[in-house]
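Troubleshooting entry. The earlier prediction with zinc ion gave an output that would not parse, so I re-checked the input for stray whitespace and re-submitted. Clean input:
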Amino acid sequence: MEQTGLGLYITKNFNSKNYKGNTIRMAVVDLAELKGYPLNFVCVLPRHVVLKGNLQSKFSDKFGDNSQGVAKELLNRALLTEDDLDIKKEIMDRLKLLDPKPKNIAECIGCGKDFEYRKYNYGRQKACRECRTKKRLNREWK
Ligand SMILES: [Zn+2]
């Protein structure tokens, strides 16, 4: 991607009184600037990068048609370096929002994970490969 000098600055606030649970905020920062946060602050990475109608974020103003790609790249890179579980989950959630599920992906009835199912004449697979194997090994599992 073009904006190689960019990174994410992620902060987490624990159970503040106004919010349920944790609040995770993500800011786009310019890694080429050695000034440090908040001086190298570029803009906030909004939860919904691509907005419809007149609603525009600074992020989409700045990156235009590339918004989705840039956001994905930043999130994927952050995922590699982040080890806080809450933040990781938030990154995954945001990546999911950027990447709507293809039609042949469904949630497994066994473990709840996404898997790619196959269609048969009589329907489609409802459990992932792992769970189907488990089911064969353990007859208790339904
Ligand atoms: Zn499963």
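This one parsed fine. The chain has four helices and seven strands.
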